[in-house]
Amino acid sequence: MLSFGKMRKRIEPVVLCAQIASAFFDTGLQMVVKERCANMTDALSPTPTEDSRQKAMSNFYMIYNMLAKFVPILPAILLAKVGDLGYRKIPIVIPLVGYLVSRVVLLLVIVMDLPIQAMFGGVVVHGLSGGFCSYWAGVMALVSLTSTEEDRSLHMMHIELVYGVAGLIGSLASGHLFQLYSVDFKQGTLLVSLSVFLYFLCLIYTTFFFLMPSFSTSAHERNETNGFFTERNSRNILNILLLFASGILYDVAVGGGMEILVTFEMKEPLNWSATQVGYGNAAGFVVFLTSFLGVMVMSRWVSDVTLIIIGMVSFAAGIYFMAFVTATYMFYLARALTLFALIPMPTIRALLSKQVNGSSYGITLISLQLSFKIASLAYTPIYTKVYQATLDWFPGFVFTLSSIITVLATIPVSTVGCRSGRADGYERILGN
Known about the structure:
Radius of gyration: 22 Å
Shape: globular
Largest sheet: none
Order of helices and strands: HHHHHHHHHHHHHHHHH
Structural class: mainly alpha
């Protein structure tokens, strides 16, 4: 077992605790939005329809998600630069403050019957602190600096596994906790209060107890510094661009599909309760476990690029099947097809980190996250409007769209694979 001193150098407790808190918040927000949008639609229309409620929910999430992705852009860049100067804890601590404040806002919405639009203020505060963009890039920068090139993909997947297991636990419990209430406490109060408390613990631990691990410079980075890899670095620029292109396309497919899925679950024929929402979210987090096992097993025989393609094909199949879901059991079958869908992103981050030296990990990874945010400013409203336009004849059309975009995302990363094969040949000839 690890001693307390060694445990204080591990970022996993923060990832675990924060993600359980996030799972609580996600279920709480989803149920509160459903209730408030239904009440608002029913009050405004004498004959409310399911489509009108769906449009109200999807419009709320469109604004909420766009704020969540646009506001953090500048703060995240600044925090990444601070992190690359050696203050690696800052890009993690500051976002945790924003998380805490935004969760308190949801608690006030429930307890004080504030309008659901108050959550827009909460997400702005969250964004000004750097948001998930800064937090996750900061975590991954730590992982990159404390691992070798050979095992970096596995280390990043390990952190993703902790994230996924925490989300699974939190999601399974969240639906039941949401329904616990009494005369004095409204439905959802306990669930969101626990989320606030867990974020508070994460903030205290990271600020006062977490010790930054020591970083060592790899032989690869020393050789780069000495100028031995000048030609290789020039080739890496194109690899970086190709990896960014593949990552952005995949993020568009996954992000757009998952944003609509939270609304899709609330309509007929699914029309889920809080408990079912929690279980559905948990099914999504099981993918973290299966993806981790997939990396452990398949990385012995296939390259990182092949792993990425396998993960993308897995998601493309699952999200295509989701387009035709008409019952809860079919939803879980679609989720089962995405068992390797979490492999691409951490593997792309690992490949990117191999193209730059350690002093640039933070800014490189934050640039990737920010490119996702910028892309989402286009795909969030597009997916929302397409979903609203196709509600009457094919509500699952957006999932088919995600499947097509995922297939396109395999093209740039396949090119990286071809180039990497040639680069390995050059290095063997040069004796590197």
